[in-house]
Predict the 3D structure of the following.
Amino acid sequence: MSSLPFPVRVAAGLVVTAVEEARDLPRTVAGLPITAVSRVLQLSMRAQQVVTELAIKGDSALDGARPVEEAPSWARFDDDLPDTLPPARPGTWERPELDDTSLEYTDLASTPRVNGHTKPRAAEQSPATLPGYESMTIAQLRGKLRSLSVDEVADLLAFEESHANRPPFVTMLTNRIATLNAQ
């Protein structure tokens, strides 16, 4: 090892480090703007985090001091409405009076639609060929069609056209009849 005193060795190390940094200066200077911008963005993000943390602490401290309204003054619920409504002004909507016995509940997902409108059913009906047909999805029907004859598929097509008349179902049944006739 060296017999020179420790402070001399440290001074020599500083000189070597300064020379190395001087050689790398052109590369360091080129990256300086990017480094500076990065540091500024880091500091601003950290400042935003600190401010947000302070706001959260402030909110939790102030929540105990602020009284909570049972029901806000702007909230209106059906239970709050009077039993008798004032008479409607001309040109305004009037709420019809309904009793629970006149309401009919239906499953809208299985209600047939024609031109985007629901088509009410008189009663649930199924063709004799395929029980439960009226509630099948197109994928379920596709799975059942392979086991049916031409006449049975034709019966389903007639049923579909006279009831819901859903275009995808009509197309699938028509194509299946054509395929069976071609075989």
In short: The mean pLDDT is 79.
